[in-house]
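About this split. The held-out portion is used to measure sequence recovery: a designer receives only the structure tokens and must propose an amino acid at every position. Recovery is the fraction of positions where the proposal matches the reference. Here is one held-out target exactly as it appears in the evaluation file.
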């Protein structure tokens, strides 16, 4: 658009009709009430006019000129437009002249500034029907849009076009890569249907009589008889199909309308241009409906992500299928960890999926590891998810895996490819099995014979280093599961025991005490700690191979606790000295004897902590009650039987005025509750009497202090 040419178009000035309309539009006010964000009522007054904008239009030289006036400008007597918008339908261009300043604007009509638009409310645009017809005809809208909307639609469309042009390079680049992705292998859908989902065993409801009911396995698609009682089917219980051996969930034939199973499936293919590989990730859904019969299903496969992998299986690009940059176009996009608001969110890349294995040998035939049993490595057909890229990288990085699998170290290969192996145990770059495992030929043979995993390998390495031959029982014990070789080694280091003896000791202790390996480990390690603290020699057999380890552990622990109790007693006696200082006054105030019972006052703070330990309640465990008594806010009194005044019975918390706050015996229980309650009531009355007497004497001597101190003064 050439600006000079635009200015030669004949000017459009406001008509008399238009100006008269603006002058008549004097406006009105409206009171608006609304609810604020915290629910409070808010209100404001809104100035309203019928029109803000007035439009005229003219066509010439294939261009459209739209003149925009505002109510304010017309009422001020100005007949010139505020803006002149020039539009070229053919070239899809537009440009706006701000008449007052003579400046050119590129903004769309809705982003231009209009005087009065910020405080006035309006719903209508002023224009004649002729103007409207002209504009709609010019843009060929086929509708009767108002001028503002017709211009805006044209401008918005043009903006969209520009944006597409801008992103064109990026989409072209993505498309170039996507073009090299080969077609989906034949039979992929059927394979997914049969090998990826959790299976169901649908069983027929029980009928009366001796008829054997049947059940249907979705794994093998076979009908079979239900097992009899007590192994019969239970709705939603787990089972294994006796025909195909697949794990399945029992579902009663009529208990649900539909069953939907979801999973993720990964497909690895070579890129058509030979540049590397593509890992395609599908979201898979399998649906069965009661109305269609459980034997039939429908499978849906949605390809959501693609990772392009280079020669060493490192990712060179990540793609996802979705809306491209808010354009409304759905296509392959670069994967971005951003949500639609532009904030980064959690990485939703589906790295774990059920791997499609039938094509792997063919796709990986240029790789050294192509003749490995890839189906086993990727768990093909097991319905289990794996991390395909991690496994591929591992296979590529460590050629030794291939030998390990070929030689029958299945458990080791499984642990390594599942990322569960301790890599410190291997020399993965070695080309020789013995070097790789750090074992001599004989031990390699033993590891293979046992199909041992990393823990057995570690044990054999320790054996090679420290001597002493592992027994079959030792290896069985290690393979039984939870044995952690690093804990065994740590214990060996402390005790100087050989591997064999250490393992024997652990397995015997585990059995003897009925504990798990981890419990035994903690117990033994605590036992050794305490023995060491007591100055014992951990390398002495009587200590390190103590058959009664648990008994000694418990004994040492009790003594240790006792020592800690002594320390606590010393500490509270120092911190809460008032308890000891007040003991005579307190004893005089609370001391009482009735029938079989006697009320005693603690002579010092440690008497209270001791009472708490013996009665197993919380009176001495925290500082609360001690501090209250020290500050003379509440008091702890012991109720005991006269014949056994030294053994605790009830512990009472009371106020100086005799109010009982709480009273409990061992373990916070209340033996002889009714009897004790009566004794307490009588005692409380007596203490109350003593308290009121003190108050009277206190008033007489006109000494104003808090009750505790007052009484101390009185008694002294
Ligand atoms: Zn089956």
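Reference sequence for scoring:
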């Amino acid at each position: 658009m050439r600006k000079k040419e635009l200015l030669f178009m004949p000017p459009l000035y406001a008509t008399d009709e238009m100006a008269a309309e603006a002058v008549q539009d004097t406006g009105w006010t409206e009171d608006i009430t609304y609810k604020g964000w915290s629910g409070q009522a808010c209100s404001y007054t809104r100035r309203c006019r019928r029109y803000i904008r007035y439009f005229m239009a003219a066509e010439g030289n294939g261009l459209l000129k739209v003149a925009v006036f505002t109510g304010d400008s017309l009422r001020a007597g100005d007949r010139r437009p505020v803006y002149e918008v020039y539009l070229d339908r053919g070239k899809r261009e537009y440009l706006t002249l701000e008449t007052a300043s003579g400046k050119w604007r590129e903004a769309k009509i809705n982003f231009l500034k209009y005087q009065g638009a910020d405080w006035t409310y309006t719903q209508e645009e002023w224009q004649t029907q002729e103007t409207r017809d002209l504009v709609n005809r010019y843009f060929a809208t086929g509708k009767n849009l108002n001028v503002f909307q017709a211009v805006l639609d044209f401008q918005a469309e043009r903006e969209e076009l520009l944006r597409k042009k801008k992103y064109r390079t990026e989409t072209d680049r993505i498309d170039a890569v996507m073009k090299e992705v080969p077609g989906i292998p034949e039979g992929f859908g059927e394979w997914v249907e049969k090998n990826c989902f959790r299976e169901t065993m649908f069983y027929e409801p029980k009928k009366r009589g001796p008829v054997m009911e049947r059940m249907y396995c979705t794994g093998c698609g076979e009908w079979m008889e239900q097992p009899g009682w007590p192994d019969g089917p239970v709705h939603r219980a787990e089972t294994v199909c006796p025909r195909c051996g697949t794990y399945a969930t029992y579902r009663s034939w009529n208990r649900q309308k539909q069953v939907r199973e979801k999973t993720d499936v990964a497909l690895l293919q070579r890129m058509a241009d030979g540049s590397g590989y593509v890992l395609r990730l599908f979201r898979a859904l399998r649906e069965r409906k009661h109305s269609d019969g459980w034997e039939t299903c429908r499978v849906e496969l949605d390809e959501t992500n693609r990772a392009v992998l280079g020669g060493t299986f490192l990712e060179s690009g990540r793609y996802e299928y979705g809306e491209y940059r808010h354009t409304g176009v759905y296509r392959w996009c670069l994967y971005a960890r951003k949500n639609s608001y532009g904030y980064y969110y959690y990485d939703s890349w589906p790295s774990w999926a059920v791997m499609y294995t039938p094509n792997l040998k063919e796709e990986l035939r240029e790789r050294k590891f192509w003749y490995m049993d890839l189906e086993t490595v990727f768990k093909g057909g097991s319905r289990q998810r794996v991390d395909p890229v991690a496994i591929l990288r591992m296979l590529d990085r460590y050629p030794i895996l291939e030998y390990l699998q070929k030689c029958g170290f299945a458990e080791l290969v499984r642990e390594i490819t599942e990322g569960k192996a301790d890599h410190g145990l291997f020399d993965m770059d070695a080309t020789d099995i013995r070097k790789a495992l750090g074992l001599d030929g004989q031990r390699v043979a033993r590891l293979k014979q046992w199909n041992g995993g990393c823990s057995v390998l570690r044990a054999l390495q320790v054996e090679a280093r420290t001597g002493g031959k592992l027994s079959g029982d030792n290896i069985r014990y290690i393979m039984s599961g939870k044995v952690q070789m690093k804990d065994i080694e740590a214990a060996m280091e402390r005790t100087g025991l050989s591997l064999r003896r250490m393992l024997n000791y652990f397995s015997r202790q585990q059995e003897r005490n009925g504990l798990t390996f981890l419990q035994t480990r903690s117990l033994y390690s605590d036992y050794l700690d305490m023995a060491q603290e007591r100055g014992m020699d951990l390398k002495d057999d009587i200590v390190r191979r103590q058959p009664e380890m648990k008994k000694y552990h418990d004994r040492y622990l009790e003594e240790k606790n006792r020592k800690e109790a002594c320390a606590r007693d010393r500490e509270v006696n120092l911190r809460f000295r008032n308890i000891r200082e007040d003991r005579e006054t307190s004893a005089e105030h609370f001391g009482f004897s009735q029938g079989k019972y006697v009320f005693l006052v603690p002579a010092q703070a440690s008497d209270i902590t001791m009472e708490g330990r013996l009665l197993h309640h919380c009176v001495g465990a925290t500082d609360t009650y001690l501090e209250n008594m020290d500050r003379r806010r509440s008091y702890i009194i012991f109720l005991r039987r006269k014949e056994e005044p030294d053994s605790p019975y009830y512990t009472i918390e009371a106020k100086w005025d005799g109010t009982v706050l709480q009273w409990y015996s061992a373990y916070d229980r209340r033996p002889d509750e009714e009897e004790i309650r009566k004794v307490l009531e009588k005692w409380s009355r007596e203490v109350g009497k003593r308290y009121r007497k003190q108050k009277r004497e206190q008033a007489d001597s006109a000494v104003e202090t808090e009750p505790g101190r007052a009484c101390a003064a009185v008694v002294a």
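Annotator remark: The mean pLDDT is 87.
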